[in-house]
Design goal:
With about 200 residues, this protein is α+β, with helices and mostly antiparallel strands. The protein contains eleven helices and ten strands.
Length: about 200
């Protein structure tokens, strides 16, 4: 334990060892302290900057805990769950925002973007995306595949884990937190499965 004037402190070497954070990240956080609230050094130990351990731990914990977004804001996952719009479609609309006037996010926490739901829906309906042009090459989620096939969501979930004969392979798989995977299927493959003889 490193101490300075009787109190516990961290040097960068201590932080690398105890928190597993790389030196370049620590240096970046310190450089950007006016924007991110990083604590100021408490002094130096052996020629190295040192920070009060309790103050640094509080700052780091607060940084790692994303603040809850204000009410009325939604993520892409919320829009998918509430309005049945595929995540692929939402990403495409966002990537084409310079041409389509997609609303700017109202909030960002880490890499997660949040939109004002009522503003976004007003734009979406005016944009004509409420009934988007469907392409056989569109990627659809397992939930959308279930809707296309007229299946209960629980049945489609079972299909993904124990596929029946002829069930298509996912076109893409997106890793999610906790070891989960989001499977995306090509619409054409799902419609081919629907039309096959039973």
């Amino acid at each position: 334990m490193t101490t300075l004037d009787g109190r516990r402190v961290y040097t960068r070497a201590d932080l690398m060892e105890t928190h597993g954070v790389g030196r370049s990240t620590l240096e970046k956080w310190y450089r950007e302290r006016s924007a991110n609230g990083h604590p100021e050094p408490a002094g130096t130990v052996g020629g190295q900057l040192a920070w009060d351990a309790d103050a640094w731990d509080r700052w780091h914990t607060a940084r790692a805990t994303p603040a809850a977004p204000p009410p009325g804001l939604v993520t892409r996952d919320d829009l998918t769950a509430r309005h049945g719009i595929s995540r692929h479609t939402l990403k495409k609309l966002w990537s084409e925002r310079a041409d389509n006037g997609h609303p700017a996010p109202a909030h960002q926490s880490g890499r997660t973007l949040y939109w004002n739901e009522s503003e976004w829906l007003t734009w979406y309906e005016a944009h004509g995306s409420a009934a988007p042009e469907v392409s056989p090459d569109d990627l659809v989620t397992l939930a959308e595949a279930a809707r296309i096939l007229g299946l209960a969501q629980s049945s489609a979930t079972v299909y993904a884990k124990r596929p029946p004969a002829g069930w298509p392979q996912p076109a893409e798989e997106e890793p999610l937190g906790g070891g989960r995977v989001r499977r995306l299927y090509r619409r054409r493959d799902i419609e081919t499965y629907r039309s096959r003889p039973r």
